[in-house]
Structure formats: structure tokens, C-alpha cells
Amino acid sequence: MTTVRSIAFLAAFVLVTLVAGKAQTSSNDAQPRDVVVKPDTLPPVDARWALVIGVDEYADPQVSSLAGAANDAAEFSGAIQRFAGFPKDQVIVLTTNQEPGRRPTRANILFHLSNLSALVPPNGLFLFFFAGHGVERDGEAFLLPSDARLTENLRILHATGISFQNVRAWIQEMPAKQLLVFLDACRNNPTAARGSEDNLLTESFTTPFRFSERNREIEAFAVLYATAVGSRAYENSSGGYGFFTGALVDGLKGGAADAAGEVTLGSLVRFVQDTVPKRVQIELGETRRQRPFAEIRGYRADELVLAKLSGLNRPPTPDGPLRSAAAEQLQAWADLRESNDPDAFLAFYKAYPDGPLAEQALQRKRELEWTRLEHSVDIVELKKFYEAQPRGAYSKEAIERIALLERTAGDRDAILALLREYADAYRARDAERVAAVWPSLDRKNLDRMRDFFQMAQTVEFELTPNGDPTVTGSTAVVACLRTLAFVDQRGGRRESETNLVVTLERTADGWALTSVAVQ
After folding, report:
1. What average pLDDT is seen over the chain?
2. Which domains does the chain have, with CATH numbers?
């Protein structure tokens, strides 16, 4: 299911070029007079390095867990390797689901920042990506690594967290001429007890990355935020990543490409700004608002190529603008969003198998299939659903449902067998067998039963359940129709039908009767 995760994250994209001379910073409307050359190319492939971090789990129990930060890091790192030319062995990924040396602890993060500061060449590109919790204390913003302590004490935060000013200092010390920084650090309230509350983006998160001409080492930069200051951002929980990250990845893999297959800084910004609001409203309703915004200075945004796609990676409209194809898919998705037909979403996927919404269509198809099956008692159909995607969405729920039904079936069979044994013992006029299935029957009533069995010449007894047993914990209840006929010592025949409620308790060996009451 696609739901809102109460987040208001900063997902900032900072593209910075450093030079060891005078600064050259500019905006589209006001350029400093000393700007001569605006960068419009990235460094060579072998000069591109990245540190990508995703923090889902925190050692401090006061910090709430996240669901999609590690996924965001994995998806993003894969996208920059495949589409933006980053060599795999020059992309370091730290996430909470890896071995200790690759987990996003404060020490590991700072260690790799230190190492990379020496590895990235002066003519190179350094990329820093962080997805996880961020907090603000007294106007100062901090990233929370996995071993951070959440506290109001600034000294402890400085010792266990990583301040945004500290990140900025590392950036400024890098010898690389170009830097890319993505920050996704203001999600839901990081305090575990208040995890459902908003954690809105504030100026404290954006100010450290607002470079200007007074920073003499900076030539140009671009910043792309997931949402506006004072607002919140959302995630696709069924997909396990944020709408913003999803749009960035889809833009890099072709959604933001032009007819020549080039994704520029400008086209990526426009794609993200167009796509995120639509996807949020399609999935969460028209009252939800999330629109990324950008600050770009000193770059020829429409000439700076971030990715150039091969024909295999291109969307299926090579003769027309690729953005038109993306718009067409979004409109088709909007027309489809109210459908409850899994086959309709499968048809959408087949029509746009390489589009940015293809995976979401398959997820929606599976969600609808699960909605139909989640209360089913058909174990065969549930197993087919699970076997189609053993690691897909709702697989865990399907396994749990199958296990429940199998336990229920086992309980039902055992309970019905016990009722048959009770009826057989009654027909056989064997009080000891009755006592064996009804061990809590008191002596007085057991003696009365013995007297009845001795008095009756013959006994006909049927106990017919009116439905399956209702099992709650260790107790089961079955509504039954009792049909009794017997011949007394004088040869008289008596017959009766009575509605009963039979109650049973689970024992170490199975089940036992505890009461038989007239309904």
C-alpha cells in the first residue's frame, strides 16, 4: 500500500565546483562580473568518486527506525553507476544492512570522508549522499549516523552526530573541482515516541549549503530540495523509497532525457519538479502538496550533461521528445489510479515496461491481488500468490496467512475428530470413553451419564457441527445440532433434537471438551 510516512525531509542536491583562486558564483538573474566560464561538463569517469549513506536502524532506542533510507541509498548508488558514469569500485555505500565496516556509524562516515579527500583528484568529482534522520537544535542542524545519541545536549550531539557545518567543512577541504551533495535528512520526527509527527524542513538545514561569492573557493553550485522550507515530503511505502529519490533515479535513467538521450542538470530539475507533485497527488490524493525547488548559480544548467543514455536505456519513443513520453505515461497513470483491476495495471506495465512508473504498476497490481486474497481461506491460491514473488510485497503477509490457515485447518480437523469420538463413546454407552474426551466432567454428572447408559437398551446419538470451530487462543467453540434417540427399559422410544454450544480447551496433546450447553 502506498501511504504517507510523516516526513519533511531535506533532500538536497548540491553541485559545487571548487577552484583555488577567486570565486565565480552567479545566479540566472544576477551574475558577478568576474564570471568568465560556467562549467558545462563533468570530469572524466575515472575521476568520479562517491560516498552514499543510508541509515534505517539506530542503536539509540530513542531514535525511530526508517523504512526506505537504505533502499534510497542502494537505488541511487546503482543509478549513478549505470547512468552517470561512476565506476563501481569508486562508489562507497554505507547502509545499516551491511557488515560492520560498511555500516553508517559516525566513525565510518568520517573515516571514508577523510580517505576520499586524499583519493579524489583536483580535477575530479566527489559525490556525497545521505539518507536518514536529521535534527535541529538551537538553530543548528545535524545528520544522525546509526550510532548517534538523540539529546537536547549540543555537546553530545556534536560528539555523536555530524553537524551540517562539519559536512560543509569537509566539502570545502576537498581538492576536487566539482562536488555533488544529496541530503535526505529531515524525515519523520526522529524521537521514537513521536515518530508520527512532522519534522519540517527549516532554514537551518539549507543555510550551510548556500554558498555565495564570499566563499572564495567556490565557482558554481546547484541545490535541489525535495520540498519547500516549512513543508513536508512523502514516500511510497509500498516501493520502500521516497517520491523524490524515485523521481531522481527515473530522471537519470531516461525520464529527464532529451531526444538525443542526454540528461542535463536543467532537464533533471524540471523532470523532478514536474513528476514529484503528480506522483504524490496520484498516490496520496489531491490535497497533498510536495514540489521540489532549486537554487542554481554559476552553471549552464541546460548544457551540463549528467547522464547520456544508450539506446538500450532510452524510453520507447526515440523519434519524439522523451519528456512527452513521460507526460503521456503520467496521464495514463492518472486515468488508471481509481481502478481496482489488477489486469489493468499489468496492461499499463506491458505498455510502458521501461517507464518510470512500470515498477509501481506491478506493485499496484500485486497490492490489488493481495486485497482480494488477504481474507481468503484458499491455501492453494495463497501459495500461488507467494510463489509468484517469494520476496515481493505482501509475501510475508501471504506466508503468515497460509500458516494461520494451516494451523486453523489442523485445529479444525482435531476438534471435529474429538467430537466424533465423543459421539461414538455416547452411542457405545461407554462413560469412561466420554470421560477421556471430557476430563473436566464432574463426578456427579458422570454418574448420571452412567445411570442413563444402564437404563437405555439402545442409544442413537449424532453431533453435527453447524460450521467450523471458532478458535480464540486456547479456546474453541462449536455450534452443533444434537440428535438423540434411545429405547428405555420398558421398550419406549424417545427422540429429540437440541442446539448445543460445545466449548473446548487446547491441551498438551490436542483438545478436550470443557462444556456442552443448550443454546
Report:
1. 79
2. 11-315 (3.40.50.1460), 415-518 (3.10.450.50)
